[in-house]
Amino acid sequence: MKEIRSTDLLPDELPMDPLHWADAWIKEAGASQVQRNPSAMTLVTARSDGQPSARVVLCRGFVPDPGYLVFYTNYRSRKAVEIENNNRVAAQFHWDALGRQIRVEGRAVRSPDSESDNYFASRDWGSQLGAWGSDQSAPIESRQALITQIRARAQALGLELGESTDALRSDKKPLIARPPHWGGYRLWISTIELWVEGPDRIHDRALWTRDLLRTNENFSVSPWTGERLQP
Ligand SMILES: Cc1cc2nc3c(=O)[nH]c(=O)nc-3n(C[C@H](O)[C@H](O)[C@H](O)COP(=O)(O)O)c2cc1C
Asked: How much distance in Å is there from the Cα of 112 to the middle of ligand 1?
């Protein structure tokens, strides 16, 4: 694996647009191929009684203006149930080989259906089938029962599978609609920390915050205020 440790600390005068910096870091992580899933982030949600839970999801979009990131999941999963009850979430990216970390906090709201439709349509059919086949986070008695369930649901969608669930018998690319229980969330960012590994553990970090004001399905945002933090 390539080692590309960045020597760039944050500028003395902190940038006013931390999301553009974050966007550049995410793009650099993608281009540098230092890890298999450079867009992977740990997403933290919390039950309404305060119990947090964490898991990795892929960041499938980062929109610095006005400022949210996008991930996709099953709307009946544990994380989604927690978000529906308490939309305050946190997420964190770490690129070890680049010596960089990004932490964000904010509010998650469902993406517009049209956006989820477009993303779902761009996925390969195996991933599309997976969204129908698995009741994410629900218990199942065995792996075999899961395979049987996926095969049955594939059949219901008019798909003929070969020996394995990812072997399609027909040459035609099937048209699979997005399940209503699967789609995107926009994580609207109200807090962001950029962290750069420094020599002798004198790391460089800064935290920016802003207000999010709910406007119908979206948020309007106030300007950022940023400050450097001790490592
Ligand atoms: C590298 C990686 C990427 C993943 N990407 C996603 C993703 O984009 N969406 C998703 O729902 N789960 C993804 N998962 C699975 C989740 O970590 C998790 O197991 C699943 O979403 C169920 O979480 P929950 O029961 O807390 O809702 C990914 C796991 C890994 C290790």
From this structure: 21
